[in-house]
């Protein structure tokens, strides 16, 4: 029984089914309220100083901040997040998916303590949810621009490239929160990724050995060095345990005459 199973045995009853649906619904509500200027988006960001002052709702509401984009892109992003979350929940179970989201939230909490004047949102938690889906379903295809089929594993590599650029180009609070949420991803997938890499290396080494054996000559002429690989047209005979090719045999026969 691993650590996740132990936690599920103790706290599994607290897991929220269809958590992604509640997150998406909350973001839809927030998007509507902020667009009608009923609520400033900055009232929802995670910030430890404001939490200490009594704005404890920020511990949760930063997860309800929608991506900064137009409505069409947002609708697509919400649908994708809900779909991949449903797949993760089906594969992992309700508790493990909840734990993954909670781990990303906790990682953000910890980072916010060290950067108390920065406002944090949920963007990088969403990216790691996508990476989790791509890890479990690497060959799933999305229709890019609704036309071009692209396997999700390639989009995941692009996402990782985007995170690398974000680490380079952004201030330290962003850099650290990216690394913290990726650490949460590694906590769930690190062992599997290591084993997959190790098995791949062993498979490559085995294939190399097989190829080397196939390339290795079976017959070698001790007189001229020709082999059945370099000179497949020649026949080989053995005299006193030593190989000799047909050409050298012929030369010996002619010299004896």
Helix content range of the residues, please? Answer: 55-70%
Strand content: 5-15%
Report the order of strands and helices.
Answer: HHHHHHHEEHHEEH
Major beta sheet summary: 2 strands, antiparallel
Integer average pLDDT: 88
**Inertia-based shape:** elongated
Number of domains: 2
The CATH architecture of the largest domain = Up-down Bundle
What do you see in this structure?
This protein is mainly alpha-helical. The chain has two domains: 3-194, Rhomboid-like fold (Up-down Bundle), CATH 1.20.1540.10; 215-256. Helix content is 64%, strand content 6%. It has helices at 3-11, 19-35, 48-52, 58-61, 71-92, 94-114, 123-136, 152-169, 172-215, 246-256, and strands at residues 141-144, 148-151, 236-239, 242-245. Helix 5 packs across helix 7 and helix 6 crosses helix 9. The longest helix is centred in the last third of the chain and has 44 residues, at 172-215. The model has no long low-confidence stretch (mean pLDDT 88).
Summarize it.
This protein is mainly α.
Which key features would you list for this structure?
two-stranded antiparallel ribbon, Rhomboid-like fold, 257 residues, mainly alpha, 64% helix, two-stranded antiparallel sheet
Write the layout of secondary structure elements.
Elements: H1 3-11, H2 19-35, H3 48-52, H4 58-61, H5 71-92, H6 94-114, H7 123-136, E1 141-144, E2 148-151, H8 152-169, H9 172-215, E3 236-239, E4 242-245, H10 246-256
Antiparallel strand pairs: 1-2, 3-4
């Amino acid at each position: 029984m691993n650590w996740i199973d132990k936690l599920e045995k103790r706290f599994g009853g607290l897991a929220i089914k269809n958590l992604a649906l509640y997150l998406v619904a909350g973001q839809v509500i927030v998007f509507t309220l902020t667009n009608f200027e009923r609520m400033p988006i900055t009232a929802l960001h995670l910030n430890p100083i404001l939490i200490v002052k009594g704005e404890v709702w920020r511990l949760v509401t930063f997860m309800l901040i929608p991506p900064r984009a137009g409505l069409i892109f947002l609708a697509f992003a919400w649908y994708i997040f809900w779909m991949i979350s449903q797949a993760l929940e089906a594969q992992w179970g309700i508790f493990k998916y909840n734990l993954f989201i909670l781990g990303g939230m906790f990682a953000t909490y910890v980072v916010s303590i060290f950067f108390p004047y920065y406002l944090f949102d949920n963007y990088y938690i969403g990216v790691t949810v996508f990476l989790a889906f791509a890890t479990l379903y690497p060959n799933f295809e999305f229709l890019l621009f609704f036309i071009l089929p692209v396997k999700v594993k390639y989009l995941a590599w692009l996402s990782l490239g985007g995170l690398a650029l974000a680490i380079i180009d952004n201030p330290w609070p962003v850099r650290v929160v990216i690394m913290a949420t990726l650490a949460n991803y590694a906590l769930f997938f690190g062992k599997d990724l290591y084993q997959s890499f190790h098995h791949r290396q062993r498979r490559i080494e085995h294939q190399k050995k097989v190829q080397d054996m196939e390339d290795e000559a079976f017959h070698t002429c001790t007189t001229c060095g020709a082999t059945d690989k370099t000179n497949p047209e020649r026949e080989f005979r053995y005299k006193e345990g030593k190989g000799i090719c047909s050409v050298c045999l012929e030369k010996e026969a002619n010299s004896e005459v």
